[in-house]
Amino acid sequence: MMVHAPFNTTPGTRDPRALTAGAPIVDASVLKAEPVTVPDVEIFHTLIEVDDRLILPLIPPALHTPLPPMVSFVLWVCPDSSIGPFKLAQLRVFARLLARPRGLLLGSYFEGAADAAEYLRKHWGFGCMPGKVTIQTYNDQVVGIVQAEGRQVLRVSGRDPHAIAPQDVRDMPNCNPVRLRRPEGEYSRLLQVDVEVVLKEATRSIHPMLEQIDGDAWHAPGLRQEYPVRSLHCRGALRLPPPRFLIDPALPTDQRSEEIR
Fold first, then answer.
1. What is the CATH number of the domain that holds 191?
2. Is residue 11 part of a domain?
3. Could you read off the pLDDT of 12-29 as tens digits, one per residue?
């Protein structure tokens, strides 16, 4: 279930060039890709409160954080898809563009074929750093684990989950930092990534726990949990349509998004 938080009128302070310095290069001429379809996906999505003194330096002037400041961890396990089997883990900052909630992508880890990772990277701006992504389900909890370079960089859990109506689950679009390549040059941009899901079952926990994280591995040094919000464990179908909008991270929060034609 989507959490709606009060507004914080303080915009982010991060230099957009620093935000996109290591981001994927996306060519404007190939943004209209074929959608990625996943007929059977498992999703574990954990939302926690964090210290706003950490978050504001991570987001650009185009976005601002709600109160309380939050981040989310999203893990997908896709046994089959139109680009083959893969797993993807994301860390996002809960942010707003005007009144619209958005998840600013800070980092993503990918397990699967290299060509599938490249497809997600060049069309949707997912960094897809190589890793191992696991969702473990027990009677009393769900656990999400991400490993990279032989070490554990994330472990999150949701204790005492209970069933909820799948239609009550909502998520927000991503803002994925990219370096947009056009004939006249390269630009820092946020690529809006929408995800369409049709869920057949879902559980919710109000006892999520960030058990372990390597903040540096996710481009969020010092990240820690202040308070729990909730975690969701879902199954259903997923579709990743072609991106429709671009956002200039340097412009004020009242800018209009640029439609991709």
1. 2.40.400.10
2. no
3. 888 988 999 999 999 887
Both tokens of 44, joined, read 């574990």
Is 66 within 8 Å of 47 (Cβ atoms)? no
Render pLDDT for 177-212 as a digit per residue (tens, 0 to 9).
999 999 999 999 999 999 999 999 999 999 999 999
| Within a domain: 184 | yes
Sheet holding 151-159, edge to edge: 132-137, 141-148, 151-159, 207-213
210 part of a folded domain: yes
pLDDT digit string (tens) for 98-123? 778 899 999 999 999 999 999 999 99
Domain range holding 116?
16-247
With CA atoms as reference, report the closest residue to 238 among 94, 109, 77, 68: 77
- Give how many domains the chain has, as a whole number: 1
- Inside any domain, residue 224: yes
As a whole number of angstroms, the distance between CA 111 and CA 84 comes to 11
CA atoms 61, 65, 66, 67: torsion sign: negative
Can you tell me the distance from the alpha carbon of 23 to that of 185, in angstroms, rounded to the nearest whole number?
A: 16
pLDDT over threshold 50, residue 1: no
Distance from the Cα of residue 118 to its chain's centroid:
17
Q: In which residue are the tokens 């726990």 written?
A: 209
Helices (H), the chain: 16-19, 52-55, 114-124
